[in-house]
Amino acid sequence: MRKGFLKKVSSVALALTMVVGSINIVPAASHASNGANVASNITWNYFSIIPADGKESSLDKLHNGHVDGEDGKKVKYCWYHALTHIRTEDYPNGQVPLGDFATQGWVAPGATASKAQFWAANTGWDGQYNERDGSLVGDNPYGLRFYTSNIPVEKGRTYTVSFKYRSTLKGKKTIYEKDEYGDYKYDENGERIPVLDENNDPIQEDNYIKHIGFNVINPANNNGLDLTSYSGCTSGGSIEADSSVEGEKTVKVTVKVPKTYAGNAICVQFTAGSYITTYPDETAMKGSLFVDDFKVTAGNQYTVKYICGNQSYTEHVNAGEKASGHQFAVKGKTFSAYKVGSSKYNLSTPVKGNLNITCVYTATKKPGKAKVTFKAAKKSAKLRFKKLSNAKGYEIKYANNSKMKKAKTKTTTKSSIAIKKLKSGKKTYFRVRAYNLDSAGKKVYSKKVVKKSIVIK
């Protein structure tokens, strides 16, 4: 295998595998009943650097033209910008079949929504490499991954992802020298020193352990969701598949879909490629990961219905959480209180069951007569308002005649306002009234109007 070529390509493979998750678009999720398995209709997909048919392609098929390098010269293979040269019509699933990569696997035939076999012909040994010097800088487990089709979810709801798994993955690992304290010995290049046989070849032994990434992502942007609780895996979603152990292990995690979530679906994926820096003994393994009893269960929610006359609004609240509240737009009315039955209801109370909440409204109070002072200035006038109960703002009409013909109108919610571009030496007539706002955002004006005229300086 051409390792130099591998180092350059693998960073491209990482980028590719991170962007192929735009699986399929699902319609907005309807409200699922408590405990429903929302993953009952999923299918399983896979990404593999070498596809199932094992076909290779030429470098020219991977790229589409030459580009300028950092030194200004034409570079034959632009790894940093390779994504812009991928011929997507040749690889509709984002697959880049290059013989330099051993990473290969697929979903075995016969998979159902709850049960699947993920076959790895080779989990590979690719990683992330520095484009400039070719140095290894990180893992690339995304070279082989298995993932669900989109699973419909509701914003703000909690879901439990659960499954059982077992493994037949097996590979070889090198035995390295250790000191008297059990720590590895390293050479002058910082590499572990292998134990050699009589032919000076590194001694290897069977390896049955493969760490596999497991995470819940948003297919709209590939962002992962935090696990709010977990068992059978790490907080980051890593599982340890040990093929030397018989029987199945169980994983159970919960995630909460944020109310500000982009989209209406999640995707569950397993990354089975190489963790070449984190677990260097687990490369180039062969075998299967079996997943069984896979479910995504909708968390318990209660129905909270807000009622106002013939209007209603329904929200679904997670058990033990608080209702968000809802207010209606009612002309001439102001929200007063929430009631359940004849008792007032406090939104700070955790919801423990289905609720019908009545929204109580009262007539919007009109403010009193505005308290305003006028001060003439050069070609302007300044009005100041004293605090007034139930006043949300003020409407000011002004004209150069007492009959208010062709009057101009300004409104303000501040405690003062300057009226400019007035005629110097002339009298300006003002009419001011305060206003309140009803629940529909409409102005409710004071009955009394302040009338005033002043001579502008």
TrEMBL record:
Keyword hit for Cell cycle: no
Keyword Signal found: yes
Keywords: Signal
InterPro entries: Galactose-bd-like_sf (IPR008979), Ig-like_fold (IPR013783)
Domain of life the protein comes from: Bacteria
Signal peptide: 1-28
Protein name as annotated: Fibronectin type-III domain-containing protein
Annotated source species: Eubacterium segne
